[in-house]
Design a protein that fits this description.
By secondary structure, the chain is an alpha/beta fold. It has a single domain, classed as Aldolase class I (TIM Barrel, Alpha-Beta Barrel), CATH 3.20.20.70. Helices cover 31% and strands 18% of the residues. It is built from seven helices and eight strands. An eight-stranded parallel sheet has the order 1-8-7-6-5-4-3-2. β7, α6 and β8 form a beta-alpha-beta unit. α5 packs parallel to α6. The longest helix is centred in the last third of the chain and has 14 residues.
C-alpha cells in the first residue's frame, strides 16, 4: 500500500497535494503527529485532519509520536482518523491504550523505534491491527535508513504468519528505490512514503505516485 506522509507535502497547499496524490493512486494518507517532547519536532494538530477529511474518502493513518498518547485518541478519531498508531515507548499502559483505540472505532496500531525489540509488543498482538516499524529514528524527514530494522521486519512477519494474526506491517523512514525492495522482501505491506520516493523536488506528485505504484505491481 502506498501511504504518502503529509508532513512532506507543501504545507501551504495540503488540499491540492492530497488531490494529486489520490489521483496518482495513493491508498491512504499518513499524518505524523509530533509533540516536541517524544520526538524533537512539531507537526499537525487535529484541526488539519478535520479540514482535509471532507476532501477524500481514503483512510487517514494517524501516527501519534507523543507522550501519553491515550489523551488524544478521542480527539483524533473525531477529527477523522481511521487508524491510530501509538508508540510502545510512549505509554505506560499500551494494552489499555490499544483497546481504547479499537473502542473508538479506529484500527489500533503500535509503533516501534529502531532500537526497540519486538518483545515490547508480543503481549498486545491480540489487540493490534497494525505494527509500524520505524526504519529511521523518528522526528525529521530525510534521516538515514537503519538496516538493522530489516531482520526485525522479517521476524515480525514470521511471528504474524506463525500465529495467523490479521496484522498489517507498516514501515516508515527513508523509503526509496534501494530500501523499499528490502522492506517488501522482508514482509512489509504498507509503505509510508516521503521525500525519498514521492515528494521529489521539482517532480509532479501525481506522476511520482503513479510511477511508484507501477514499480510495485
Amino acid at each position: 500500500m502506498i501511504n504518502p506522509s503529509l508532513m512532506c507535502a507543501d504545507q501551504t497547499s495540503l488540499g491540492r497535494d492530497l488531490a494529486r496524490l489520490e489521483a496518482g493512486g495513493a491508498d491512504m494518507f499518513h499524518f505524523d503527529i509530533m509533540d516536541g517532547d517524544f520526538v524533537p519536532n512539531f507537526t499537525f494538530g487535529p484541526q488539519i485532519l478535520e479540514g482535509l477529511r471532507p476532501l477524500t474518502r481514503l483512510p487517514f493513518d494517524t501516527h501519534l509520536m507523543v507522550r501519553r498518547p491515550e489523551r488524544y485518541i478521542e480527539r483524533f478519531r473525531l477529527a477523522g482518523s481511521d487508524i491510530i498508531t501509538v508508540h510502545a515507548e510512549a505509554t505506560d499502559h499500551l494494552q489499555r491504550t490499544l483497546v481504547e483505540i479499537r473502542k473508538s472505532g479506529a484500527r489500533a496500531g503500535v509503533a516501534l523505534n529502531p532500537a526497540t525489540p519486538l518483545s515490547a509488543i508480543r503481549h498486545v498482538l491480540d489487540v493490534t491491527d497494525l505494527v509500524l516499524l520505524m526504519t529511521v529514528n523518528p522526528g525529521f524527514a530525510g534521516q538515514p535508513f537503519v538496516p538493522a530494522v530489516v531482520p526485525k521486519i522479517r521476524a515480525l512477519s514470521r511471528l504474524i504468519r506463525r500465529h495467523n494474526l490479521p496484522i498489517q506491517i507498516e514501515v516508515d523512514g527513508n523509503l526509496g528505490p534501494k530500501t523499499i525492495p528490502l522492506c517488501l522482501e522482508a514482509g512489509a505491506e504498507n509503505l509510508v512514503c516521503g521525500t525519498s520516493s514521492i515528494f521529489l523536488k521539482g517532480q509532479d506528485l501525481t506522476a511520482t505516485t503513479q510511477q511508484l505504484k507501477a514499480s510495485l505491481a
